[in-house]
Design brief:
four-stranded mixed β-sheet, alpha/beta, 15% strand, single chain, 40% helix, 16 strands, binds 4'-deoxy-4'-aminopyridoxal-5'-phosphate, seven-stranded mixed β-sheet, 14 helices, 455 residues, Aspartate Aminotransferase, domain 1
């Protein structure tokens, strides 16, 4: 159901006005965008950076706490937080200090630093699993875990949920064709020559019957899943879904790989720990070391024994797992500081309480304005959804997509000093976020609703 009194013409007119406002108020970012155009594909170091809805990318002068100051010297209350990489705030003091100290004593050695054992202990303390390996990105970690899972189960298939995103991992860049119900390669993926749909199955989230049917063939190495979909709108699990799904995986000898890269915002140690999902393998990236490139994957002793057996049984040579800089000494120092100072009960208490107040504030305003929108929250992260109910699966999100309204929301807020994640309307509360930041966001949201609904 589209928002009734919002005509596409009105949205387009507001969008145009916001674009003009951005150009007028961001001359330095506009100039930097022109200069960068000469040296970068699409004018930015990573082409996703053009996915923000502004006429030019916002160039960053500095980021501290949740204040991101752009090239024009304008402060922004950052609720995007690097799409979770900076979930604990930008450059937390303890982290910045640990990085600075280590930076003067070696960056990478292809050897563990003296901190390695303590970091392992810290990972177990925070996430619960006893054994760990490291990678530089969550994409890498997921890719490596898929290799391990296939190696130790000797099964070819991987199972994911429709609408999933686990990084630049070929096997997972597949879709569920809504008409045929078949798994198909994702059409947007460039340079694809392999048919990953032949080794990956996709089922709808929250659908136990489909999950059961996909597992019943007995050839699935692992279910790779987020506890809630976070990359296709925020889609929480239905009550009882995970208890049953976990049981089905066990019954069919399929490993459960839980990707907590985003859902680590749920609670200290992540969703799986809070809800007792008992994953065989747990992946966390992005914020795990406070935003320094780092990802980790942990596993049970049983899985570790099977990994060792698989490695020992393989001929000598490259395992296809690992990259040169993984587990470097700078990353270990950052991870150590993050585990001790960022992944703390006090931080989560603050984040969760403030996130709840933000959710209440948004929900009240939505009700007052009588727009058919929803706020769905999972711990410290939430999404403003332009649909009347919390989605149940990816198809539900597709059917309610309102990309123009979404882009307008982001630009309107950005122009008034509030950053939302551009990919969908995700808001994240960090330990550095304060009530006055939430008040600022809510005031801008009031202005947005007034602008949209003015007759
Ligand atoms: N897993 C999940 C759940 C993610 O959301 C992402 C990125 N958004 C990744 C993995 C990949 O992270 P990275 O881009 O840092 O490799």
């Amino acid at each position: 159901m589209p928002t009734p009194h919002l005509s596409p013409d009105r949205i387009a007119a507001l969008q145009q006005a916001e674009r003009e406002r951005f150009v007028a108020t961001h001359p330095a970012s506009m100039a930097l965008a022109r200069a960068a155009q000469a040296h970068y594909l699409f004018g930015v170091p990573l082409h996703w950076m053009r996915d923000w809805p502004s006429p030019a990318t916002l160039f960053v002068q500095s980021a501290q706490g949740i204040t991101l100051t752009c090239a024009d010297g304008l402060p922004h209350a950052d609720f995007c937080l690097g799409d979770t990489g900076a979930m604990f705030g930008h450059s937390p003091r303890a982290l910045a200090q640990a990085i600075a100290e280590q930076a003067a004593q070696g960056l990478t050695c292809m050897l563990p630093s003296t901190l390695a054992a303590a970091v392992g202990e810290g990972l177990q303390r925070v996430f619960g699993l006893p054994l760990w390996q490291m990678a530089l990105t969550a994409s890498d970690a997921n890719r490596f875990v898929l290799r391990w899972a296939r190696a130790i189960t000797q099964r070819p298939q991987v199972l994911v949920f429709d609408g999933c995103y686990h990084g630049a991992v070929d096997d997972t860049l597949v879709d569920l064709d809504p008409t045929s119900g078949r798994t198909v390669p994702r059409p947007s993926v460039l340079g694809n020559v392999h048919n990953h749909a032949s080794f990956t199955r996709v089922v709808p989230f929250n659908d136990l019957a489909e999950l059961k049917a996909a597992l019943a063939q007995g050839d699935v190495a692992c279910l790779l899943a987020e506890p809630a979909l976070t990359n296709f709108g925020l889609v929480p699990p239905a009550s009882g879904f995970w208890a049953a799904a976990r049981q089905l995986c066990r019954q069919h000898g399929t490993l459960f790989v839980c990707d907590e890269t985003h859902t680590v915002s749920t609670a200290l140690g992540g969703y799986a720990r809070l809800h007792g999902l008992e994953p065989d393998v747990l992946v966390v990236g992005k914020a795990v070391a406070g935003g320094l490139p780092c990802a980790v994957y942990g596993f049970t002793i049983d899985i570790a024994q099977r990994m060792v057996a698989a490695k020992n049984a393989a001929p000598a040579g490259h395992s296809g797992i690992g990259t040169t800089l993984s587990g470097n000494v700078l990353t270990l120092a950052a991870l150590n500081a993050a585990l001790n100072h960022l992944h703390t009960a006090a931080n989560y208490t603050h984040m969760l309480a403030l996130a709840e107040r933000l959710e209440v504030g948004l929900t009240e305003r939505i009700a007052r304005a009588r727009v058919p929108w929803t706020v769905t929250r999972l711990g410290a992260r939430m999404e403003l959804q332009f649909m009347p109910h919390t989605p149940r699966h990816a198809q539900d999100v597709r059917e309610h997509a309102q990309s123009e309204l979404e882009a307008l929301t982001h630009l309107f807020m950005l122009n008034r000093g509030v950053l939302l994640t551009p990919f969908h309307s995700m808001l994240l509360v960090s330990p550095e976020t304060q009530w006055n930041d939430v008040e600022k966001l809510l005031a801008v949201f009031d202005d947005f609703l007034s602008a949209l609904t003015a007759v």
